[in-house]
TrEMBL record:
CDD domains given in the database record: OAT_like (cd00610)
Protein name per the record: Aminotransferase, class III
Species the sequence originates in: Colwellia psychrerythraea (strain 34H / ATCC BAA-681)
A Pfam family assignment: Aminotran_3
Family under the similarity heading: Belongs to the class-III pyridoxal-phosphate-dependent aminotransferase family.
This protein's UniProt keywords: Aminotransferase, Pyridoxal phosphate, Transferase
Obligatory cofactor(s): pyridoxal 5'-phosphate
GO MF assignments: pyridoxal phosphate binding; transaminase activity
InterPro entries in UniProt: Aminotrans_3 (IPR005814), Aminotrans_3_PPA_site (IPR049704), PyrdxlP-dep_Trfase (IPR015424), PyrdxlP-dep_Trfase_major (IPR015421), PyrdxlP-dep_Trfase_small (IPR015422)
NCBIfam families, per the entry: PRK07036.1
Length: 465
């Protein structure tokens, strides 16, 4: 039995408000409403300090792939902490878990990506990718080849550089971006593609846009194209069939590297350890991953780097210039031990196989049960990465007034009956732990169905719809 009497919710709530500055927070509502304080967890469930239980339809933040409360993960942390809790991997140093995890990751990633560089989060790894590629082009005598192309609604992190890569405009409001570096092309938003365009025509349009963008900047100036296989925080945008393969061919034609940001899509969310090659049929030059790498039990991220890039970066130089990039916690032994254990658990449970079956059922059930609701414009995604987009009008796809905060209303209704879904403006995002049972999937689908109908009724009652 979990003991919640040890938590003083009111005191925690007040001190949180006073001292804990939260990321990505609307302080106007935060200062009124404060925080929901999560204190305990088990399987697919989290519990707040008052003992209320929620099925976590978000897996923390697309993270907790193997589910909560896994004792083996705690044991792996303890064992490694007792052996050696920290050592640097700068220069010629390393630790057994860092070596073993690198070897394992190299065996899971596309064959040509056999080198691993560690960080502690997706933003950091995307920053690393840009610095590495710039270093590469400096070394091969192409110092002008530095420009980066990313997509609107792509999310790549919130350090200065990774937020500059990020194309979600809302996230830029009030902040600055790194100048003269990043160029944007359209995100593949099939639902909101230009009227009258078929999906294959839309794909032609998107691929052509990438090519034209490279040509307009000048291929000799373009270093890299950055994209998520399925854009996550931008609204779970599944590209048209063949999109990634065709974009990869364009990039190859002009000597432009591809960074596939698999921070969300790696480690099983779509039913494969890495999705770029196995699901989308293209081989990037760098893959970044984080989150599911340790199921969020401890911070760890990784760049999988191609032999082509590594071979240039690692050439000894007569003048002694070395690769001066890295972090105190690169290859942290406890994080790497947890990553290894996480992968071992995933493989033992055949979690990818489970996702291909139950995740597909989740996808199909959401589409089947929710698509026809009047408020629902689109249900999209793949396996355990899904999004519901609400609209005022199904035919015109017109959005509701943002002040209605439709995503929040749906999330609040779900939360009241023990389900967490993520509101993002007029969208709700679902990214549950990958261990969900069929019964848990059915609970999510029926709870959402009722929540959306209740919200529709409320809007009618309030004269808003
Ligand atoms: N890339 C993607 C695709 C992400 O979804 C995120 C975070 N949600 C990041 C990068 C940034 O990762 P982090 O927050 O760990 O820095």
């Amino acid at each position: 039995m979990k003991d919640f009497s040890k938590y003083n919710t009111k005191e925690l709530w007040n001190n949180d408000l006073k001292h804990n500055m939260h990321p990505f927070t609307d302080f106007s509502s935060f200062k009124k409403e404060g925080s929901l304080i999560m204190a305990e967890s088990e399987g697919a469930y989290v519990f707040d300090t008052d003992g209320r239980k929620y099925l976590d339809g978000i897996a923390g933040l697309w993270c907790v792939n193997i589910g909560y409360g896994n004792e083996e993960m705690g044991q792996a942390m303890l064992d490694q902490t007792r052996r050696i809790p920290y050592y640097s991997s700068f220069g010629h140093l390393t630790t057994p878990p860092a070596v073993e995890l690198s070897t394992k990751l190299a065996s899971l990633a596309p064959k040509s990506l056999s080198h691993v560089f560690y960080g502690t989060g997706g933003s950091m790894s995307n920053d690393t990718a840009v610095r590495m590629v710039h270093f590469y082009f400096n070394r091969i005598g192409k110092p002008n080849k530095k420009q980066i192309i990313t997509r609107t609604d792509g999310y790549h992190g919130s350090t200065y550089l990774s937020m500059t890569l990020t194309g979600v405009e809302y996230d830029h409001i009030g902040f600055d971006l790194a100048p003269d570096l990043v160029h944007r092309v359209s995100a593949p938003n099939v639902y909101r593609r230009p009227a009258g365009m078929t999906v294959p025509e839309y794909c032609d349009f998107l691929v052509n846009e990438v090519e034209q963008k490279i040509l307009s900047i000048g291929p000799e100036n373009v270093a890299m194209f950055v994209a998520e296989p399925i854009a996550g925080a931008g609204g779970v945008l599944v590209p048209p069939e063949g999109y990634h393969q065709r974009v990869a061919a364009v990039c190859k034609k002009y000597g432009v590297f591809i960074l596939s940001d698999e921070v969300v899509t790696a480690f099983g969310r779509l039913g494969e350890m890495f999705s770029s090659e196995k699901i989308f049929g293209f081989t990037p030059d760098i893959i970044t991953c984080a989150k599911g790498l340790t199921s969020g039990y401890i911070p760890l991220s990784a760049n999988m780097i191609s032999d082509e890039i590594y071979d240039v970066i690692s050439v000894p130089q007569a003048e002694g210039a070395s690769f001066t990039h890295g972090f105190t916690y690169s290859g942290h032994p406890v994080s790497c031990a947890v990553g290894l254990k996480n992968i071992e658990i995933m493989e033992r449970m055949d979690l990818c196989g489970h996702v291909r079956e139950v995740g597909k059922y989740f996808e199909n059930q959401l589409i089947e049960k929710l698509s026809n609701l009047p408020l629902v414009g689109d249900v999209r995604g793949s396996h355990f990465m899904m999004c519901i987009e609400s609209v005022a009008n199904k035919e015109t796809k017109e959005l509701l007034d943002p002040n209605i905060a439709i995503g929040n209303r749906i999330a609040d209704k779900c939360q009241a009956v023990g389900l967490l879904v993520r509101p993002l403006a007029h969208k709700n995002i679902l990214s549950p732990p990958l261990t969900l049972s069929v019964a848990e999937v059915d609970f999510i689908v029926s709870t959402l169905h009722k929540a959306i109908i209740d919200v529709q009724d409320d809007l009618v009652k309030e004269g808003l719809w």
